[in-house]
Here is the input.
Amino acid sequence: MYIVMVTPECAPVAKVGGLGDVIQGLSNELQIRGNSVEIILPKYDCMRYDHIWGLQKTYSDLWVPYHDQHVHCDVYFGFVHGLKCFFIEPHSSQNFFNRGIFYGHQDDPERFAFFCRAALEFMLKTNKHPDIIHCHDWQTGLLPVLLFDVYKHLGMTHPRVCYTLHNVMHQCVTGDFVLRQVGLNPASYHTRDRLQDEHNHGAINLMKGGIVYSNFVTTVSPRYSEEIKHSDLGCGLQHTLWMHSMKFGGVLNGIDYSAWNPEMDRLIACRYTIESLDDKYKNKEALRNRLLLRHEFKPIVAVVSRLDRQKGVELMRHAIFYCLANGCQFVLLGSSPDPKINHEFWELKRQLNDNPDCHLEISYNEELAHLIYAGADMILIPSAFEPCGLTQMIAMKYGTVPVVRNTGGLADTVFDADYAPKPYHERNGYVFNDFDHQGLESALRRAIGLWYLYPHYFRELTVNGMRYDFSWNHPARHYLNVYNYIKE
Ligand code: ADP
Here is the structure.
């Protein structure tokens, strides 16, 4: 099958969050299964160019209709760790992708609306007729609208569109001038069944456009797909998703075991497998040495996370004091773009500076993250909501028991040691429901209790988690089923 991914991110060249990892992991796995995959990205100035191999200009005669003019673009081609990537570089006074950061500008709606039109124009002009165009998040929401209302009439009748929602909190609600700029007549789209925003009737919603106009819509876990259809977590998209529920489903993300595997990981102190699990504890010692924690008979509870309200920063703060008061050591690795949250955690760090059982690392540090996954006994993920979440899946691969809130992808991957309706050998962590101190404590208390009182059972839980297969193997099969279904 011939698949084109149109996306604002692809790890490691242009990565802001989990979306970048999904593009890389899914595309790799689709390629391994014999499909032809191409990726179209904006050519940002702030990309990791050191990860692109053989970058060269491949098309220099692309004129993209925009507003009442045509914008000239160059298209570059290069390999990103074996993946074929095209990068679109527009030459206009707006300087769309030379801003030093990926997102966060006032004209983001215009930047990515232009990108959608440019990607289609490029496919048209180079005679690409993929079976599937796979679009991601609000940044590509206008692509299916443009395909079905403009480019189909120019000859692109073949491609079908799969659209994946990675986080519906970011939908891009904007003015209809954005439609006019890419050549669509706003009057045709200002209705509830098309792009009109549910909360602001004068505005249009780009993610909604992607949902309405695609052949199939997915999100990144089955539980999240239900939550956004039936609760406030849909952030206003509930009605639209419900109306389109026949073409909507959840496919759990995978993780890349070539990067996250304690058997082969070069960033940890001692490699290990289920058979040599005792070696995991050499990593615990290494972690203590690195972070200057004392060597005592205590479990290490860890957090590795963006420090965002979505991730439950208030509960993390409570957990630190709860764990320290209940015989644990605590390690946190996190950072936040929000200066207020960063400041709060720096304050906390100062307050706990002399505590030999606690270390807070307020930064982004990929290498330390590996050692924490390997060295900790438990990982805490108290999210308010979590579309999928990679942290719990990575932790389990490293034999670190997850303690998580019952939401989204966390609920689909972590099964409570005491209460899950699953056989014992399939239970792999601790889950709590209520997003408050009592809820959090109810799970932590049980996890810490098991570690101290029944180490044999704790080890079984560890091994159960390590046995799960969260590779891209299963998700890629699901996506191929979706592609085949809409192709027919
Ligand atoms: P999200 O994409 O919402 O941030 P995920 O759980 O899907 O959350 O992915 C988080 C990824 O980012 C994981 O690979 C995790 O190890 C990594 N990560 C998060 N915070 C940090 C940090 N401060 N330092 C290093 N890695 C981090």
The pocket of adenosine-5'-diphosphate is lined by residues 17-18, 304-306, 333-335, 364-366, 369, 388-391, 394 (CB under 6 Å). The mean pLDDT is 97. The first strand starts at residue 2 and ends at 6. Residues 108-125 form the longest helix (18 residues).
